[in-house]
Amino acid sequence: KLFAKPLSISEQDRLHDEHLQLGEILRIPAAQMPGSRTAYWEYFDTMVHTRLENHATAQDVLATMQQNVAAPPALPAPLRRLWPPVGRSGGRFGHWLTVATFPQAVRDVLGLDWTAADQRKLDRFAATVRTVTTRLPDRVRYHPYAHGARQLHRHQRRMADRALTAFVPPAGVS
Questions:
Q1: What is the rounded CA–CA span in Å between residue 155 and residue 161?
Q2: Comparing C-alpha atoms, which of 119, 101, 95, 75 is closest to residue 1?
Q3: Residue 67: which H helix or E strand, with range?
Q4: pLDDT tens figures, 155-171
Q5: Is 35 helix (H, G, I), strand (E, B) or coil?
Q6: How far apart are CA 149 and CA 11, in angstroms?
Q7: Is the Cβ–Cβ distance between 159 and 171 less than 8 Å?
Q8: Is the CB of residue 99 less than 8 Å from the CB of residue 119?
Q9: How far from 21 is each of 11, 42, 152, CA to CA, in Å?
Q10: DSSP category for residue 73
C-alpha cells in the first residue's frame, strides 16, 4: 500500500496463494498457515491484540536497530573512512522505517510514539519511493534472480505468441 500501487483483491489473493506455496516448499505445516487472505488478517489481528507484548526482547531488538550499520565488507578501504556517518544515519533510518511500517495497533502495544508529523514524513517518503521505483529499469528495480525470471517469462510469452500465429495463413489465403 505504501511503496507501490495497491494490489487488487484478486492480486492479494494470488499473493497469499504464493505465500502458501512458499510455506509448502519450506515445509511449514499447512495447519500453521492461514488458508486464505481473510483468515491471515484475522490471525494477524488476533496475534496483535491478544499475544503481542511490550516485552524487553522486543524493545532490545528495536534499540539494536538504532545502532550503527556496519560498513559492507566489499567497501573499498578509502571509502571506509567516510562510512561512520552513513552507518549512524542508516541505523536511525532503518529503525524509523520499521516503526513507520508497523500498523498503529502494533505501535500502541509496543509503546512507540507516532505523530501526525511522522505520518506526513512517511507519506512523502512513500510517494517518492513509488515515483522513483516506477521509473527504474527492470535490471535495477528487481533482484537479479527476479529480473532474470521476468526476462525468461517475457521471452517465453513472445515465443508462444509467435508459435500461435506462425502457421496462420494471411487473410484471403486458404
A1: 10
A2: 101
A3: none
A4: 999 888 877 665 666 67
A5: coil
A6: 19
A7: no
A8: no
A9: 15, 20, 21
A10: T
Grid cell 494490489 in the structure block, residue: 7
114 close to 104: Cβ distance less than 8 angstroms: yes
CA atoms within 13 A on the CB side of 141: 13
Please, are residues 110 and 57 in contact by the beta-carbon 8 Å criterion?
Answer: no
24: cell is 509448502
Residue whose C-alpha cell reads 511490550 in the numeric block: 54
Q: What is the pTM of this model?
A: 0.72
Residue with cell 512513500: 126
DSSP state of 97: H
What are 136's three cell numbers?
527504474
DSSP SS3 for 106: helix
pLDDT in tens, 23-74: 999 999 999 999 999 999 999 999 999 999 999 999 999 998 888 888 899 9
With 0-12 / 13-18 / 19 or more C-beta atoms within 10 angstroms meaning exposed / middle / buried, residue 169 is: exposed
Q: Is the distance from CB of 11 to CB of 135 less than 8 angstroms?
A: no
